[in-house]
Design goal:
mainly alpha, Serine Threonine Protein Phosphatase 5, Tetratricopeptide repeat, single chain
């Protein structure tokens, strides 16, 4: 909702104004007439520092405005104050933005921070995708052993949709092909196809592998 995004955008200055107004009313009268103003100020300030502007980041990323997403992420000056599940999401987003910039070392650092936080239902939901991302990062850096380990962990942790599952099994298929374990490669390829992904890049990757996987021994 647009009004919620506007509220989150201006929550900090509104909280400061409310606090100043509460102090003024308290000084002019007494504490109780200013109580509701103190309460509103407290809710706004705690919301800003404990929950952060995650909705604004989500809105920016959904519309493809990566620069705005980066600006909002960089506006979080004290990520250590965010509650643990939100902090985990914060580091996941930082990792994704670093990957978009092809800064693999920074992306890996943030993804590891997200996983290290652990706990909480929101963090658990992000565990599988985070480990898949880390696996992809390892593969891009030439660490096939680490990549395989993370991708297997991602599958065990659970991935949120058919697209992510297809990507995970296609990566395992490619790893097995490089290791010349052709029977396993075929099994993982069949598993990837069974998820019926629709993302053009994934569909194209399946078509490319399909051209020669049938000619493999095993």
């Amino acid at each position: 909702m647009k009004w919620m995004s506007l509220f989150i955008r201006y929550r900090l200055p509104l909280g400061i104004v409310m606090l100043a107004l509460a102090i003024f009313v308290n000084y002019q009268t007494s504490f109780w007439p200013s109580f509701i103003l103190y309460l509103l100020a407290l809710v706004m300030l705690l919301g800003h520092f404990l929950l952060g502007p995650m909705r604004l980041i989500q809105d920016a990323m959904e519309t493809g405005n990566i620069e705005e997403a980066k600006r909002v992420v960089n506006s979080i000056k004290f990520p250590g104050l965010l509650i643990k599940p939100v902090r985990s999401v914060y580091y996941t987003i930082k990792g994704n933005l670093a990957m978009a910039d092809n800064d693999l070392d920074t992306a890996e650092k943030h993804m590891r921070k997200s996983l290290d936080l652990g706990g909480g239902s929101l963090t658990k939901q992000a565990e599988g995708p985070n480990k898949l991302q880390l696996g992809m990062l390892c593969l891009q850096k030439g660490d096939f052993k680490g990549g395989e380990a993370y991708i297997r962990q991602a599958i065990r942790a659970g991935l949120p949709d058919n697209e992510n599952n297809a990507v995970a099994y296609l990566q395992l298929c490619s790893i097995m092909m490089n290791k010349r374990e052709f029977r396993a490669a075929k099994d993982y390829f069949k598993k990837a196809k069974s998820f019926k992904p629709t993302t053009p890049q994934i569909v194209d990757q399946i078509k490319q592998i399909e051209k020669y996987i049938g000619r493999m021994p095993g």
